[in-house]
Amino acid sequence: MKRIPVWLLPLALAVVQLAVWPGVPLLLDDRLSGLAVATGVTLTLVVAGALLWRRSSPLTVLAIVVVAITVGTFGVPQDALLTISLADLIVLFGVAVLRPARLTFGVTAGVIAWQSVLIVVATADTDPEYPFEIAMVVVVYATVVAFGRARRRWHRERAEAAVRLAEAEDRRAQAADTERHRLARELHDVTAHHLTSIVVIASAAQRLGDTRPDLVAEARDFAARTGRETLDALHRLVALLRLPDERPGPAALRLAELAEGFRLLGQQVTVRTDPGELPSPATEAAVGITREALTNTLRYAPGSAVRIELTAVPGGTELIVDDDGARAEGVADLGSGRGVAGMRERATALGGTLTAGPRAGGGWRVRALLPQAGAVAAVRRRWRPGAEHVIDFFVLGLVLLLPVGSLLVDDDPDVDQASLPLLLLLVLAHAAPLVWRRRRPWGVLAVVAATSWAWPALIVADLVAPSLGWVMLTGLSAETAAVYAVARYGRRPGLSGLSIPAALVPMALATGATLALDPGPDDAGVPLAAVIVIMAIVTGIPFGLTVTAAWLAGYLARRRHTRVLTQEYDAVAASTFHAIAAAGAERARVAAGLREAVLRDTERVATAAADGDLDQVLESARAALDAMRGLLNGLREEPDANRDAQGRDPQPTTAALPGLADRWRGGGRQVHLDIRGAGRKLPADVDLSAFRVLELLLAGDTGPVAVWADLTGDPLRLAVRPMPPDEGGEVSAGLRARLAAVGGSMGTAADGQPEILLPAPHPDGTRPVEATADEEVASSPSA
């Protein structure tokens, strides 16, 4: 999202103000006081200049604007500075966006009080319209603050999305390392001690066999038993490594697939499910808990009967995993002690509970209660007044302003004390549904369209004078607002265009009928139906243009909003997918290594022990142990020079760009890096995005490349020459996702080639100082 330049709005206000006053009066040769002109021009320039700092110091700017408007009220003709007087609304909007709610409300109350006093002092009395003016001030300021708070929430949600993306990127970067370390612990627990024991005992039996022949038989028995146990454990581990981590689909189907996978490992698993369709988070939690429970059963009670039950209960969904077997003697412990804790974390993350322990009749039970998403949502959706409610009532007020004001002010003789309440009630019934326009836009449109027929019905019933049809025309903005709401908030955006004829046809016919029921002298002898059609066409053409524009505005606003959210979601999903893929690749590599070497040699241990060949037992056990150590060494590789003392990759920020270039140079690639403004403090999401963008572009090719990064200004400018080829569109997709998360964009550099622009406002609102030669960091081209 590109931000509007901070100078554009003050410049526009100043130009319009000086053109309207004193520009127009001077062109018309009106005599103006030189002091008044000087005062007005000075105040205009002061206010416009102060607005340049409205984002960094809104409270200070508001104080300057208040003083300037107060001086202008007495130093220039009344309403002469009307345009520049809008500055207090602009700054108040900034206060609502940038400052906490309590401070914003206090400042708003102070500004309203100032305006109330200023109106009295400026007019030197309190005329009968004073309460109405104060009410308008309150409504306008409250609405501006509501729009500002809504904008603040939007910014907060974008910042949270950037944090989620940064966390996903961090998981992606660490996924392979994390999986390697976890698998190293599993492999060590499964086999290292057992294979080492076989080697030690077989070696001792060989050395002492002449004096202790009984040791040879014991060593053979131990090798055969331990070899078989190790081989079974490895087979189970390989099978578990090949189980899918996450699969789409309903909970019943995924649990059935999971159970089938464990049946292949010898477990007797039955599944019973009847909870209906679960939300995705509950499905993921249920499948994850079940997988961990089955794994524990496979470890500690292999071959036992296991029952899985997923049932709907009051308040949520209950998952029970029971097994009938006690822990088998001599079964190797494959786990790390985190199984139950991990299952409990999955349940509590959704607001649920989990218990695990021995069953009364023997065996083990895991029971999880996952709350209904609807119940949680109902608590979260408890009604609380917010900025959107103020905006909705403001829209309602705008729609009611013209018809209600016309009825109260107009001196139409047909508007008497008896019919006025009915007319006001009719106008209110036509517009009031707009309060629900966000939640039920189609329903609101239907009610608004239906109530438009109340006018001709009441005229026919002789309850409203036919000459009051003009009041209906003043309230047609309700249809316009309803069409906008359908395009902006309707469930099916592709069908929102139907709201145009849905609003236009009833409105045009109802308006035509209303106007036709008040015939003029020219309508004598013309059929009523013909008059209705003519009036419908006359009123329908301009109204059709209005509702079409409203639909287009709502559709474009929705499209922009959806595009931002989709890009953020896609970026997080892509990083998560890469993290899962990286972990899966590590599991596949480990499984392949186990099958190719360790399993083969471990199987030879058991076979040789059964044949009584102690020499072959020792040889095969040593070969299996060497293969296992090699696999473990590959998993526990030493940290390279680019990692910190804890063995972690450096933080992906612009400060790590030299290390990124060095890493590519270490692979034999020519990389030239030029950084301007190194060391500048940047927002965390922008700092991360700059690194990830360049990392993505460097990974797209293997030839010589020049990287240029200008960190001195706003926006940051990044470029890679040449740009990597992108036949499959992966690079473009990655760039779009990354740029969308922080409001970046693609631009064109001075050489005509593309460059990446990332927003980087300075903390105090001023422009960053251009980097000096000493601050510029440039690495020479590699050989």
From TrEMBL:
Pfam families on file: DUF7134, HisKA_3
Swiss-Prot/TrEMBL catalytic activity: ATP + protein L-histidine = ADP + protein N-phospho-L-histidine
Keywords: ATP-binding, Coiled coil, Kinase, Membrane, Nucleotide-binding, Phosphoprotein, Transferase, Transmembrane, Transmembrane helix, Two-component regulatory system
Group of enzyme by EC: transferase
Annotated TM spans: 34-52, 59-75, 81-98, 105-124, 130-148, 390-408, 420-436, 443-461, 467-486, 498-517, 529-553
InterPro entries documented for this protein: DUF7134 (IPR055558), HATPase_C_sf (IPR036890), Sensor_HK_TwoCompSys (IPR050482), Sig_transdc_His_kin_sub3_dim/P (IPR011712)
Biased composition (Basic and acidic residues): 636-647
Coiled coil regions, renumbered to chain: 151-178
Gene Ontology molecular function, alphabetical: ATP binding; phosphorelay sensor kinase activity; protein dimerization activity
GO annotations of cellular component type: membrane
Keyword Transport among UniProt keywords: no
Domain DUF7134: 382-561
Region (Disordered): 636-661, 746-783
Domain Signal transduction histidine kinase subgroup 3 dimerisation and phosphoacceptor stretches: 179-245
Enzyme Commission numbers on file: 2.7.13.3
Keyword Repeat appears in the UniProt entry: no
PANTHER family on file: NITRATE/NITRITE SENSOR PROTEIN NARX-RELATED (PTHR24421), NITRATE_NITRITE SENSOR PROTEIN NARQ (PTHR24421:SF10)
Protein name (Swiss-Prot/TrEMBL): histidine kinase
Organism: Actinoplanes friuliensis DSM 7358
